[in-house]
Amino acid sequence: MIYDNKFFMNKIEKVVIFGQSDTFPELIKINKKLNLETIIVTSEHQAKLMDKKKTNYIIFNSIDEKFKKFIKKKTNIKNTLFIGIGPRYIFKAKTISFFEKNFINIHNARLPFDQGGGGYSWTIMREDRIDNQCIHIMDDKIDGGPVIYNKLSIFPKSCITPKDHYNYNFKQAIKFYSEFLNKLIRKHKFELVPQVKYLSRYNPRLYTELDGLINWNLNSYDLINFINAFDDPHKGASSYLNNGNFGKLYLKKVHLHGGDTPNHPYMAGIVSRHDKNWIVVCTSSKHMLLIEEVLDRSGKNIISKIKVGDRFYSPQNELDLPKSRRVYFNSMGKKK
């Protein structure tokens, strides 16, 4: 509940979590140790990303009257903590009032600086090395409610790809959740901190197949950050080779290399050397790229078929698509 600009709960009996996250099994364990029953509510699309053997869940593709009847039957709303963790639902003001001010959202980035989606891809592109665990009040604006509790830390130097960042965040998120819940059970009153609007920035969700096409005109620093941003667990930043006979190709395990001869912008994308297990590719500035994996659509590494003098390129009309066409996601996945 919220009273006198503070968030607290006099009694917690159950926890209802909306969305999807690999942390769910661990969060359920924490709840169980605290004698709290957990109900996971997810969409049909997000359910496909979860292991039913590890996480029991119920599917609702919208927060409708059927859902409200279910919640009223299964919980005492007043004594239930409702948590959003990456939900794909639209929560309007009228719907949020149904949860009686016990509805919070967990956001793994700084607010209001990083509202929206796109996860660690935006973080890597911007070279943002600060991890943040944040809990805020759920309201009808995207990531817009007052902050309840947050904790900052620095990503280790070993964090390069989204998977690296995610693995670090996974451990931080579990510890953060446990700390918060234990404080809440002890009836700690969290001071609400409003988000400053003029510092806010919204990051739209990214779709690797569309947004991950490589612009070889980028300087070498922006280029390596862009490629790393779509590395594991994503399909990879993409491009074409020569006349495009291989189809769209996806680059992974890419390194920035400063040990070879400087380039000219016109050389960007040219394969200058083939060292069996990797290729050396020119950029528009002083660095080279060392590329270990060039995957075709089937996921096969075709690096052995690439020859010196070949050139990676990306058609301008495809590069313009992400700027002229925004991809939206809902409870059923990517909107068509």
In short:
The chain has 336 residues and is of the alpha/beta class.
Would you state the CATH class of the largest domain?
Alpha Beta
Quickly give the CATH architecture of the largest domain: 3-Layer(aba) Sandwich
Question: What strand line-up does the widest sheet have?
Answer: 5-4-3-6-7-9-10
Radius of gyration: 23 Å
Distance between the termini: 39 Å
The parts where pLDDT drops under 50 for at least 5 residues are none
Summarize the helix and strand pattern as letters.
EEEHEHEHEHEEHEEHEEHHEEEEEEHEE
Structural shape: elongated
User: Helical stretch count?
Assistant: 9
Global structural class:
alpha/beta
Average pLDDT, to the nearest integer?
Answer: 92
Oligomer type: single chain
Strand tally, please? 20
What is the total number of structural domains?
2
User: Approximately what portion of the residues adopt beta-strand conformation?
Assistant: 25-35%
Account of the 3D structure:
- Helix 5 (119-126) runs antiparallel to helix 8 (220-229).
- The chain has 336 residues and is of the alpha/beta class.
- The chain has a seven-stranded mixed sheet. The protein has a six-stranded antiparallel sheet with strand order 15-16-17-14-13-18.
- The mean pLDDT is 92.
- The protein has nine helices and 20 strands.
- The chain has two domains: 2-203, 3-Layer(aba) Sandwich (Rossmann fold); 208-334, Formyl transferase, C-terminal domain (Methionyl-tRNA Fmet Formyltransferase, Chain A, domain 2, Roll), CATH 3.10.25.
- The chain is elongated.
